[in-house]
Write a structure and sequence with these properties.
Chain lengths: ~400, ~200
């Protein structure tokens, strides 16, 4: 265990650090724009085996980044999927070489709206080309080549991450053995798109948004982005989880007669804190770009709108996981994916896990989730190690 | 299980598509995958069973049979199997119909409530039978419909279901004369192979 000022918990990767690579091969995006090159920031955990067969790709969701597990020097909180990545965990860094990349269009160091457009010499800002999930897959494929990996043992993702895993299985069927699709969907519902549009409108309504040119103007639409995140955040949680965590507890003030101290509920204080924390960390143009990418995703659009026809292309095995209180991507969405895979004759297992944590459950500890994912990947590792 | 398995496997075509309703730990599917190269899926709701299936590489889908099987298309499987679960279904006759809609054939095993053991238990003790096959007390049993092999034959007849094969298993009377003379008395587990 590396030395660390904090006490590193058991089964933790300890200190980790990101790497950066300039992908020099041009990337043609679905919208037609060609990125002549692009930078990717990523982290890896565990060791690549001699035949490079034990690699897992982690696909992040809307606001995710490359820091999925372990700690940065001086940080008290680990990466966003640390409950499930590490030595002896469901995604076991003792057995797998785990690759976690920040995708293009995001804002944590990989090429995106805050990067310099080589053609103009100034930041891309709102002019960054529109993206599709398949663009992330193609960029990840270039990283795969850079790492000399020929086939992923598994591509794993929750939410938008699960969409990338499914897209991988259709675009590069011979480049992955397993796709793990968690709390995801084959396409967004009208309600999903509605929430995303409210979030985008919140950002655009901030006077500091400046039509997306806030960086050039030296401004940041903190207020709008915070509001967008607050809206999103509520949809990631369940009524029950919010009730349990906050109820009607007050953060300040009280209802005693004769007092008129301003009242703030715990939930208000929590949401405002989450919104402000997020807006100081994330880029507004990235948020608009990636929510649109979610809206545009439709797994079977070019397969006659038939999920079965789409999945007929896939060659990998699938694990599907959903959470009962997830109303963003409900268990029904995962059941639809499972049904299409069965009809297409693919190998698939599906665990519909009881949880009161809403969509966020895919990030949180849960023993059934842990067992389903862990058992599945442990078998994958057993098979890889048997052929070593 | 082993005698069960040998009957069931003798009715399964090599390479066929198989759906196991209430697949437990997946041992039937896992066995038939190695002996008959089947493409199988199991439905299950018990978390521990699901984890076991995943661990042994059996395709397992978390789905409650009592909530219907609408998500499976007509004739989408060669054989639909249900072992020792029909008596626990809310509507066994509808489940049977669904099995024969989804599969061209189906295989069902169930505990025979007409065996001499359960009859004797009820007759002499005056209490609901608790036997090796039926281990629960009346108040906590998941088995909510008790029926005998004769009842099942009647149901098949009423619903125009063809019995392709029937086999009777009795631990204490393997293949002896008594079982062939009075199957309803000496059968503990009945195994049926059905089609429309």
């Amino acid at each position: 265990m590396p030395s660390h000022s904090l006490e590193v918990p058991e089964q933790s990767l300890g200190l980790v650090s990101p790497q950066k690579v300039l992908i020099e091969k041009p990337l043609t995006l679905a919208c037609g724009t060609v990125l002549p090159n692009h930078e990717l920031v990523f982290e890896t955990y565990g060791a690549l085996n001699s035949d490079k067969s034990n690699a897992i790709l982690i696909c992040h969701a809307l606001s995710g980044d490359h820091h999925a597990a372990g700690f940065y020097e001086g940080d008290s909180k680990p990466g966003w999927w640390d409950h499930y990545i590490g030595p002896g965990k469901a995604m076991d860094s003792n057995r797998f070489f785990i690759v976690s990349v920040n995708n293009i269009g995001s804002c944590f160091g990989s090429t995106g709206p805050t990067s310099i457009n080589p053609e103009t010499g100034s930041v891309w800002g709102a002019d960054f080309p529109s993206l599709r999930a398949r663009d992330w897959v193609e960029s990840q494929k270039l990283l795969m080549e850079h790492l000399s990996i020929n086939c992923w043992a598994a591509v794993v993702g929750g939410s938008l991450g699960g969409m990338q895993a499914m897209r991988w299985s259709l675009e590069h069927p011979d480049k992955l053995l397993n796709a793990v699709v968690i709390a995801s969907s084959m396409k967004l519902s009208a309600q999903n798109i509605a929430f995303n549009e409210i979030a985008r409108r919140a950002i655009k309504s901030d006077p500091d948004f400046c039509d997306g040119n806030y960086l050039q103007e030296g401004k940041t639409p903190l207020h709008g982005l915070a509001l967008a995140r607050m809206i999103g955040h509520v949809t990631y949680l369940s009524d029950e989880a919010l009730g349990k965590k906050f109820g009607r507890e007050l953060a300040s003030g009280d209802f005693v007669d004769g007092t008129e101290d301003p009242i703030e509920f715990q939930i208000e204080s929590y949401l405002n804190y989450q919104g402000d924390k997020f807006s100081s960390n994330f880029d507004a143009n990235s948020y608009i770009l990636i929510t649109r990418m979610l809206d545009y995703f439709d797994l079977s659009r070019e397969y006659n709108n038939s999920p079965v026809e789409a999945f007929t292309r896939a060659q990998c095995k699938f694990l599907l996981i959903s959470f009962s209180s997830d109303w963003r991507f409900s268990p029904k969405r995962s059941q639809e994916i499972t049904d299409a895979l069965i009809t297409a004759g693919k190998n698939v297992s599906y665990a519909a896990i009881d949880s009161n944590q809403g969509h966020d459950a895919f990030l949180l500890p849960n023993s059934r989730y842990q067992a389903a994912l862990g058992n599945y990947l442990s078998r994958v590792a057993d098979q890889l190690e048997a052929t070593q | 299980m082993s005698q069960n398995f040998s009957f069931i496997s003798s009715w399964i075509q090599s390479g066929s598509r198989l759906l196991d309703l209430g697949c437990g730990d997946g041992s039937l599917l896992s066995g038939l995958t190695s002996t008959h190269n089947i493409r199988g899926y199991g439905l299950e709701i018990d978390p521990e069973s699901i984890e076991n299936c995943i661990a042994r590489g059996v395709n397992v889908i978390e789905q409650d049979l009592n909530k219907g099987l609408d998500n499976f298309a007509d004739n989408s499987f060669d054989t639909v199997v249900m072992t020792q679960a029909l008596q626990a279904m809310r509507h066994p006759h509808l489940v049977l119909d669904e099995m024969l809609r989804i599969g061209s054939e189906c295989i069902i095993t169930f505990p025979n409530f007409g065996s001499w053991r359960t009859r004797a238990y009820l007759a002499f003790r005056g209490r609901m039978p608790v036997t090796k096959q039926l281990t629960y007390e009346w108040y906590n049993t998941p088995n909510i419909h008790f029926f005998t092999y004769s009842d099942f034959e009647c149901l098949c007849h009423e619903r125009n279901i063809k019995v392709l094969h029937r086999k009777f298993i009795a631990e204490q009377f393997p293949d002896n004369l008594l079982k062939s003379l009075w199957p309803n008395l000496f059968t503990e587990t009945a195994v049926y192979h059905l089609s429309r």
